[in-house]
Amino acid sequence: MDIQTLTFIIVGLTFALYIAIAIWSRAGSTNDFYVASGGVHPVMNGMATAADWMSAASFISMAGIIAFAGYDGSVYLMGWTGGYVLLALCLAPYLRKFGKFTVPDFIGDRYYSQTARTIAVICAILISFTYIAGQMRGVGVVFSRFLEVEIATGVFIGAVIVFFYTVLGGMKGITYTQVAQYCVLAFAYLVPAIFISMYMTGHILPQTGFGATIAEGVAGEGNYLLQRLDGLSEELGLAAYTEGVRNKIDVFAITCALMVGTAGLPHVIVRFFTVPKVHDARRSAGWALLFISVVYLTAPSIAAFAKVNLINTVNGPELTGVKYEQAPDWIKNWQKTNLIQWEDKNNDGRMFYSGDERNEMTVDRDIMVLANPEIADLPAWVVALVAAGGVAAALSTSAGLLLVISTSVSHDLLKRTFAPNITDRQELKWARIAAAAAVALSTWFGINPPGFVAQVVAFAFGLAAASFFPAIIMGIFYKRMNSTGAIAGMVVGIVFTLAYIIYFKFVNPAANVEANWLFGISPEGIGTLGMLINFVVAYVVHKLTGDAPQDTQDLVESIRYPKGAGGAVSH
Amino acid sequence: MAFKSEELAKAYWRENIGLVLKLLAVWFIVSYGFGIILVDWLNQFTFFGFKLGFWFAQQGSIITFVILIFIYVKRMAALDNKYEVHED
After folding, report:
1. Which NCBIfam families match (chain B) (predicted)?
2. Where is the domain boundary, A440, A461, A483?
3. How remote is the C-alpha of B52 from its chain's centroid?
4. Which of A78, A556, A558, A567 is most exposed by smallest CB count within 10 Å?
């Protein structure tokens, strides 16, 4: 059977599985689906959180970025896991004790202000929207390859599926579907990695395999894989793989923005509101990170293997270039999507990949994970499995994000702020309109992306870091912080960060070089500075306007210990 | 008031903050310290075929993060019991 047919079958089977689980578990829990996870064991909840969290960016894009950026790619590895430590230690237990459903609810109630709530809603929409644009691109890459269509068509098909998947109903809230999605995506990620690790180094564990020596029969046998990769990179005019080229301040800033942003993402925080106890909120964060680390510890090994394989396949073992007629099928297949391009500059009929003027290949980083099983010549069912994993990752995250956007618009923004008199039917109608508009806009950004999937997603983290994180942290740990200070901090933080990103990515992309950056911080890392500005502005304004009222301070006192935590209530 | 006295409430919060700060110090040293600031210096050492700084940035820090959260869960449960503010 060819890859395309197998892909249809395996993706189809996983879809059937998700829908079956959704129907089965729905019948079991007829109550409000927000508390559906109330009876779920923390291990299960951790697994579901991991699926919700690991998006197309983690699954498809991250290893590819690491493959091309080497050490510099570590910012994504540390950034997207380190945030869970902040979440578990500084946010989750207290927000759980507070007992509300959404981040705007916490901000609105803690800062006793309708304005604060509205600003929080706007921030939540902006963040979720940026994040989902990255997902669309990811889904598009998957579909364009396996349906053999242009990337734009792939994005469009993906958008239609995501829209129906979300509108179909309360699937999002059903934890067991996400547990299944986690299993599919983790399995799909590990299987090819184990195969490749066995082939390249003889190690069954890819996590240790990429530090080992190259096995017999593979180009460069007997050498340490990473040393060989550094050597190859040097010969080809690329930066050494294990050393970075980004400046230290920028690496620091990006890592920090991703960590802090993780702790401020509305769709992640929400997961910890719905566990039954404060103790479970802490435990869930631990389990979630454990399950995430299964994928994240594998990603750098996939990256290193893929890079070596790519160089071997394109340049040949002697680095003389491989004749195009002898190019493996995967190169020709990906060429159809324009995500791999070959331009025979010196007319020798041979392909060549390098970091200097000899280079003839354009390889989109987002294809590395999807192409990896083909590059390593693995069986067709593994290739199909990876496609299913990519779709699972993108779907579980997009659905959650669309729900945040649509409830923010219909519930938090319209019902609770601007039009309190609308009926339930109208509210539902607005939720659907908001979801449709979000899908349409993010489709456009998926076709015309301002960066690779992981980079687009990184902007969402910067925005979350600059707006929510300081407001929530001060809300818990600084009980005298008042509403004026928090509002001023959020507004200045997010406006600054957004303006910086828009300027360098859209208004004047030509100027997006290190010499023009503020303190050498790239748009990906600027959220860190936005966060610091938020803290400073909030503190200064608070000092000028006086402490929060006593009843608010008592409220903050009461969320600092677990005893007496009731179930989460709507309003 | 879940605590028997104002002093106990303050002591609980102080111990809580102390624990969190200790764990965050480790979190910072392993990721920002070993993985970013000291990476070039650590790279002179080899660890199972990896340059040590590179290993911390791509593997070691993640493993440490997981361990930190589970230590926190355990220590906080003990603290909640000590001050009798655990959930029923």
Report:
1. Na_symport_sm
2. A440
3. 21
4. A567
